[in-house]
Amino acid sequence: MDIQELIKKHRRAGILIDTNLLLLLFVGLLDRSFIGGKRLEKYTPEHFEALCRIAENFSTIITTPHILTEVSNLGAQTFTSSKKYQNEFFMMLQLIKLSEDGLALDERMVNRQSVDVSLLSRFGLTDGAIAGLSGKESLLVLSDDFALVGSIQKRGGHAINFTHIWELIP
Domain segments of the chain: what residues? Predict the structure, then answer.
């Protein structure tokens, strides 16, 4: 299934965005000048724009407490030079809506005991929970982690590798 078909199929259900990309989205919504800095070294404002073009196809971003914990920790490091943005970042984490357009977060609980041991040992808790949740709920996952995307696809799930497609988005 190509990317446009995956987006169309999962538009109403939402998209699960992995940790680094969700951090990029949050930081970019606050201040693009932090993109490329601490914890976002491999990204540019163009990556952020491409991510927004993908996310705008969905009304909901699905997440887990594990992802939000990692995003929270990385965001605190990203904004160490700005208390103002650090406070705004943490307020954003608590909001249901990420933007005026109505992009909402839907947090799904994934109990650590429910994560398959093979996924846990291969990916760790956060990505293991993502892989497990994608299979249980037939979610579309967006990640720049090649191994995670490959594992989800190998198990019959739907995942998009952001690293391979961001330049292709008009």
Answer: 3-168
